[in-house]
Amino acid sequence: MSSFESKETSPPNADQGAGGMEQDAALVELLRDKYKAVRAELAKIIVGQDEVLEQILVSIFARGHCLLVGVPGLAKTLMISTLARCLSLSFSRIQFTPDLMPSDITGTEVIQEDRATGERKFRFLKGPIFANVILADEINRTPPKTQAALLEAMQERQVTAGGTKHVLVDPFFVLATQNPIEQEGTYPLPEAQLDRFMFNIQVDYPSEEEEIEIMKRTTVPQSAEIQPVLTGEEILRLQEIVRKVPVTDEIIRYVLRLTRSTRITKDEAPKYMKDWLAWGAGPRASQFLILGGKARAILHGRSYVSADDIKAVAYPVLRHRILTNFSAEAEGVTPRSIIDRLLADTPVHAAASLKDARASKVLGS
């Protein structure tokens, strides 16, 4: 158990006081209300995709990045740009192409002359990465060097140019898209770089009723206006309250059982994992399962993390962190089917689904 996990499962200290707990409770209520408001605004433009939208918002409130994978025409780009308008944040769209250079993303230094003194000096021109919400469209269409520049900014939240560090704006989210069906001329992200994305979100086809509604909306003049719901300052405050959500020791052990069962070199891994996986999930998966569970719990009106929260975020957290081998591919076994079996086979103690008394004390609910 890590230091921040043990801290967050401990009872509140006396210094927090009634005022602090009331403030936390108010922020929790604010997050729930804002979540509903954002979903209502998105519904003006986006039809369906409820699970996808929830997972994106969970990652945002947990301070993570997302990779959206789906065939063309499923409104991935529209979804992200509309979300940026709902959140009243600056937005940059970067179309990844084979000739895109790292400086096209991060920015570049130019020589500028001072007209008064005639002195020449370097000046850094910021690239599109300096925004709150970054849409990295078709991230697998650019060479690894350019991908690495983006992923470094994601991890470090800063850009280095000419030996000078430039801190990125906060809040900062990268929402990347990827087409799974057309692989010619692409540069798939290595597993180590995929691991930097909190969620791998699968965007599926709409249902029949949803597609009928899409046709009705998109073949007539558009009049819907998106109203900003959340500011950057509010998002930063809400990210703090998400991290304050308590997690019981039993939930932490449940998360560890899930992730450690995928590590084929360990004794905890069942036989089917060793038969089907080439590699399993690392410690970052455990961290993101906890953070995703915390954010989802509050969005669903609870001040504690349940096993159902962990199960709900297990698919987007784990699907890009477990690497199937040739045997799995030959048998038609997918990461989703492996996660299905993992969740079915991993026991949850009954207490893990009950509200912990300390949760209501910490959040003042």
Quick summary:
It is built from 16 helices and eleven strands. With 365 residues, the protein is an alpha/beta fold.
Characterization of the model:
It contains 16 helices and 11 strands. The chain has 365 residues and is an alpha/beta fold. The chain folds into 2 domains: 1-33 and 231-365, Helicase, Ruva Protein, domain 3 (Orthogonal Bundle); 45-99 and 127-225, Rossmann fold, CATH 3.40.50.300. A 5-stranded parallel beta sheet has the order 2-5-8-1-9. It has a two-stranded antiparallel sheet with strand order 3-4. A hairpin with a 6-residue loop joins strand 3 and strand 4 (120-126). The radius of gyration is 22 Å and the shape is globular. It starts with a helix and ends with a helix. Mean pLDDT is 82; it is low at 1-20 and 350-362.
Helices, by number, come to: 16
Annotated CATH architecture of the largest domain: Orthogonal Bundle
Shape: globular
* Relative helix content: 40-55%
Counted beta strands: 11
* Major β-sheet annotation: 5 strands, parallel
Please list the strands of the largest sheet in the order they lie side by side: 2-5-8-1-9
Mean pLDDT: 82
Tally of structural domains: 2
Q: Note the beta-strand portion.
A: 5-15%
In terms of topology, how is this protein built?
Elements (H helix, E strand, L loop, with lengths): L2 H6 L8 H26 L7 H12 L4 E4 L6 H11 L4 E5 L6 H5 E7 L6 E7 L6 E5 L6 H13 L1 E4 L2 E4 L5 E6 L12 H4 L4 E4 L5 H11 L13 H12 L5 H12 L10 H6 E3 L3 H17 L7 H12 L4 E2 L1 H5 L4 H11 L11 H7 L2
Parallel strand pairs: 1-8, 1-9, 2-5, 5-8
Antiparallel strand pairs: 3-4, 6-7, 10-11
Helix pairs in contact: 2-9, 3-12, 10-12, 12-13, 13-15
